[in-house]
Design goal:
The chain has 6 helices and 15 strands. By secondary structure, it is α/β, with parallel strands linked by helices.
Length: 322
Amino acid sequence: MGIAGLAMLVFLPGCPVNLNRVPGTTEMRVEQESGYNYYLYIPSWHNNESRWPVVVTCHGTNPFDTAWAQIHEWRGLAEHYGLLVIAPVLKGTDSTRTLSVENQIDRQRKDEQAILNIVQKTINSLNGDPDRVYMVGWSGGGYAVYYTGLRHPKVFRALSVRMGSFDARFLPDVQERIDPYQPVLITIASNDLPGISLQCRKAYDWLKEQGMDRVRIKEIAGTHQRRPEVAFDFLREVTQDYSFIRINAVKDIGGDPLTVQFYAAIDPKPGAVIWDFGDGEVSHEVSPQHQYAKAGTYEVKLTVVNPKAAKTERTLRVTLSK
């Protein structure tokens, strides 16, 4: 099923199952390039006729939290709603160990490469949906979500951190890669440790300073708790409310160096699109072709308005020569 067929779906509708009963498959696998272990949950009703949303869930500090604990808590949601869930065994999510900034960043980079490899393998082998890949984390798992998730907004459609660790020193090369339209939810608990809640609020403030328009902070009752359903509800909501867009441009159409074919893949189906070609001309087609009058460099902007009137923009630079 392609993007058009998925436009009316948020997550697969699910089979009527008991959330405490998980007849699907939980596997321990190894990502060969990095050597990382990871758990994978495959719903019992998985097939290759549909594209399946993918959730990467990041554990906190071992032994207080583990990849196994993460896959275990997500299995009921995965079985019911039709999710492929990945829980990698990470190196950079220990919030109790004292590390230098350089060592922590090095661990995060290794985690990042392993996560990206695992996601791509899951998409390829299990018909995962590349437009519906999400990243979530609890406690120390916040380090992985903020680093890898923010650096790869074209991979991860939305991020959710529950009672997560945050330190801006561990994000030195993230700012230039941030997408202001990537949705992020930060959850705090009303009776959590003050230091953890403070880190969550600092993360929120930092993301707003980077210009992120779709970052939210939500307080829930209780203590330092997992509550994966809070993250899931957010992922489902933002998938309905905000467009996910990929754009591309192919030059020299028909042998004409001034003719460009623009492509946009948009999920869900848009209410309206506006291409501004940077030369005073516009188009309302999803994937228009445009002929420029002269060579030069043009700043092209696509504005997408979804059925709920939320606007999302993407830009690209096109350089043409005779």
